[in-house]
Amino acid sequence: MNTNNVNAGEMMEMFWRTGYPELRQQEDIKTKATEKLEQLLYHRSENPIVYGDLGYAVSFKPKHTYNTDWESLNRFLMEVGIYPLVADLKQDTPDKFPEICKMFELPKKDILSFSVNKVGKQLLSHSIALPSNEYELLKIIKQSDSIIVPLSEMYRNLKVKMQNCPTLLEERKISHKYGSVYLKKDKVRYDIETMLNVIGTDFFIKHGKPNSKKLYAFIKRGIIKNEQIEQFRTITNSKVRLEVNRIDNKTRVTSKQMVI
Q1: Is 2 a domain residue?
Q2: CB–CB of 49/135 below 8 Å?
Q3: Contacts of 200 (CB under 8 A, 6+ apart)
Q4: What is the structure's pLDDT at 136?
Q5: Is residue 252 part of a domain?
Q6: Is residue 70 part of a domain?
């Protein structure tokens, strides 16, 4: 898709004609096929189930909801020596302390957003009759993946170009045949490093929590263990959900796994 010398609206309109509806439809098909597969396999004892000829494995994994003792976790991370490197605010802290947090607000960034009009919604509408056979459902998921992966990559690259479109940066919104492309302000972010230096860690220990991505980076590096974090979390709810993953020819199947 040639996007030279066209604005963000024209880029998006071209993508609507060459792949966007198909991307969204295939994502929906994959979701519905996965949900039906979950219903079919829920009472099966094998876990995971490997479909070697299709190159996929499915497994049921627990999805937990936790209640976390943030203050105790913060104090533990402080003792370990990494809390200032992972500190963040709880979601409700700016509402509780607006005057303090306001002083450390960072300039809001523009984020790319999209709207769909009636013409676009008509193109996105579709229906599909799904089979009741697990193997056929996996084939549908595999087919959807073969479409979703390249189109998603194309869409990611296109959004970078649209984000930097001079016309969009100036006008903030550009309409096209199927909707519009526009810029909106991102949610408020805070200068945590400066806030820590000015206010101190005591405020964060009581009203903050660790940034999950930064904390995971330390776990991945082996500086702390996930088990050390888990001691501060209590499971309040748990659901078992199906995960569908592609595998390669080198994937080993244990005796507890079923190959189909």
Answers
A1: no
A2: no
A3: none
A4: 97
A5: yes
A6: yes
Pairing of strands 56-68, 110-116: unpaired
Q: Find the DSSP H helices in the chain.
A: 8-18, 20-41, 70-80, 83-86, 93-96, 98-102, 118-124, 134-163, 166-171, 192-199, 201-207, 212-220, 226-230
What is the distance between the alpha carbons of residues 159 and 161, in angstroms, rounded to a whole number? 5
Question: For the purposes of burial, counting CB atoms within 10 Å of the CB of 128, is it exposed (0-12), middle (13-18) or buried (19 or more)?
Answer: exposed
3-state secondary structure of 210: strand
pTM of the predicted model as reported, rounded to 2 decimal places: 0.84
Q: How far apart are CA 162 and CA 137, in angstroms?
A: 36
* Nearest partner of 90 among 233, 212, 193, 208, judged by Cα: 208
Point out the residues of the chain with pLDDT beneath 50: 250-260
Tally the residues of the chain. 260
Range of the domain at 241: 8-259
3-state secondary structure of 232: coil
Assigned token pair, 201: 């860690």
Local structure of residue 254 (DSSP, 8 states): -
61, part of any domain: yes
Number of domains in the chain: 1
How far is Cα 195 from Cα 6, in angstroms, rounded to an integer? 43
Q: Report the distance separating Cα 126 and Cα 112, nearest Å.
A: 26
Backbone angles phi, psi at 191, to 5 degrees: -80, 85
